[in-house]
Write a structure and sequence with these properties.
Layout lengths: L9 E7 L4 H14 L3 E2 L13 E7 L4 H11 L3
Length: 77
């Protein structure tokens, strides 16, 4: 049986389009430089199953309580 202790990490995707790209860039930059979060490249076009431009955010278990609320509050930054 799997337990919460077995969780090794999380990831999220931040989606954007041409009108929200600036916001996505600011979020990407803040996550990487100010919060020290591992972020993937900004993809302008659909990649794999993702139908819009996006970047991936990799969240370690100990970062979850800090990063997820930050993303929720700053998603329109």
């Amino acid at each position: 049986m799997t337990s919460v202790a077995d969780i090794r990490g999380f990831h999220a995707h931040v989606y954007f389009d041409p009108t929200t790209r600036g916001t996505a860039e600011r979020i990407h930059e803040t996550l990487a430089r100010q919060l020290g979060i591992n972020v993937g490249a900004l993809h302008e076009r659909p990649v794999g199953p993702h139908a819009k431009g996006m970047f991936q955010v990799t969240i370690e278990p100990q970062q979850f309580a800090k990063v997820v609320p930050w993303l929720m509050v700053n998603r329109s930054a």
